Amino acid sequence: MQYVIPVVVLFFSVIVHEVAHGFVAYKCGDDTAKMMGRLTLNPLFHIDLIGTILLPLFLVLAGLPAFGWARPVPINILKLRNPKRDILYVSAAGVTANIILALASGFCMFLIRNYFADVEILGYVYIILQYMVVINVVLFVFNLIPLPPLDGSRIVLYLLPKELALKYSKIERYGFWIIVILLFTNVLWAIIGPIVNLLVRLIA
């Protein structure tokens, strides 16, 4: 059970992250995700064999923080009413959803500690909420790293002049492997760990 809970919480959190992207894109004029049936929390529509199953299980069994991703929701930038502006909203939607989940979970933990501490079954709920806070804070901070294809890079692209943005976007072809190297050399956690720990303490 100690392995199942963090993986399930991670799975749910990355699905919410992707659905948030698709929902905001839909509100900005791009109905691609909606037409493909991806604006749903049904996990069957979001499973990525490596990102949502194999990698999280490996990390949890290895005693490392749970980490992973869902199958990306398709976005057609050409359908957005104002592509340059709206892609910023779409990119920010995922991390916004994660920090909202973390804050809501932290608030529920506060209620349990102060008003329902004697309800035994809520002790199990409290454990799940702890994972919700930690995992969603990790996703929030990680996705804000300005490394393509992470959400933080989309925000940087919005701010950069066109010529610099074109050069910067070329990093994306190497982005996945850079992330993998940073992850397995523990450099990634050295970068985001202090921020994650601070936010978790503040929220939980």
Give a written overview of the molecule:
The chain is mainly α. Helices cover 70% and strands 0% of the residues. It has nine helices and no strands. Helix 4 (83-115) runs antiparallel to helix 5 (122-143) and helix 4 packs across helix 6.
Task: Write the SSE topology.
Layout (H helix, E strand, L loop, with lengths): L3 H24 L4 H4 L13 H13 L21 H33 L6 H22 L7 H9 L2 H8 L2 H13 L2 H17 L1
Helix pairs in contact: 1-3, 1-4, 1-5, 4-5, 4-6, 5-9, 6-7
Oligomer: single chain
Distance between the termini: 22 Å
Radius of gyration: 18 Å
Main β sheet profile: none
User: What best-fitting shape do the alpha-carbon axes yield?
Assistant: globular
Helical segment count: 9
Mean pLDDT: 88
- What's the β-strand tally? 0
Estimate the strand proportion. Answer: under 5%
Query: How much helical structure, as a percent, in the residues?
Result: over 70%
Taking pLDDT < 50 over at least 5 consecutive residues as the criterion, the unreliable ranges are none
Q: In sequence order, what are the helices and strands, one letter per element?
A: HHHHHHHHH
Structural class: mainly alpha
Provide keyphrases for this structure.
mainly alpha; 204 residues; globular
Structure, briefly:
The protein is mainly α.
